[in-house]
């Protein structure tokens, strides 16, 4: 299929939504945990997550335009704190269910049967059975003018990685972790490692640092 | 492993780089094609790609802080046009090699053995053997203050998806496409579909639209 701008603009709405959401490929997906001002926990699935930097350690999440039921966004505004939890394949159905419109006085942990974990090191609701968890503090945010989505950048304050999937060099074995990536809005994929390469160098030039963003 | 902020700050540098780059999980990864002002093509691998919106159709890419050899960023500044091309598993080694520091007068297409495709519908170098290709125009950008990385948001002007992986509802079969996702800076994973779910609804409330960002 070939589509130009006018083709894209005239596509049937749900076809376009599915298609455009798949163009980015297999995307990082997380469960984002927050508390509201009454201490009520909230959990929601987000597939628009990017690595922003390793030092300081930062991650960005894109939020849709703020509406009355944007609980995660509003909780972060209020508390400046949130958690991100990788999703193992065994939890994918419950994780997807967090995207339903639960009222603000309902915890998706309870409603979706996901075990909540509270720890002394970081104030935020974690997903107990996630193998890779982070606690973050709001650092900055940017409104995308064209569609009013909002990129929140958080600084990582706390990390928990199950020992069995952490390699000595800092890699995480995402296949062994059975972590999922998302395709579009409703599909989930498990990861099978196909390759790992050394830092790429121009053949006659072995002295340079790698060019990739870190 | 549990790490607090002071633990993270005192980690050995390459361990921290690997670890933090893996926390986001299996990430969308693309080959980004540009032309410089002399018409010289450039191709570089980017794993910090997010879906921004379906209507208008937009994608964001995070660039590291601008340096002399930030060819992709500078070319986009000059031409406002770029392409994104999903990476099939068969091309992953050549795709990774584009991250080497080639001089500005070298095309990574040639240097890495990746076939370039020029089309009449959109001015930009595409990856011929990619099954999912987009042509985008620069729409806006945002500097992340904390580390000077730059989010460029592009509006999708042109889409090419191989017919054999496009489903009637607009989904792309990322498993059949053999698309890869990235783990950290140097690992690549193929995708095996584990689940697809209907729009999640609160059980007693079937009338609402889904809450997920589209």
From TrEMBL, chains A, B:
UniProt-listed Gene3D superfamilies:
Electron Transport, Fmn-binding Protein, Chain A
* Entry keyword annotation includes Flavoprotein: yes
Q: What cofactor does its activity depend on?
A: FMN
Q: Has keyword Ion transport?
A: no
One GO MF term: FMN binding
Q: Which residues form the Flavin reductase like domain?
A: 28-164
Q: Which UniProt keywords apply?
A: Flavoprotein, FMN
- Cite the InterPro entries for this sequence: Flavin_Rdtase-like_dom, Split_barrel_FMN-bd
- Could you say which protein family the record assigns here? Belongs to the flavoredoxin family.
Name of protein: Flavin oxidoreductase
The uppermost taxa in this organism's lineage are: Bacteria, Pseudomonadati, Bacteroidota, Cytophagia, Cytophagales
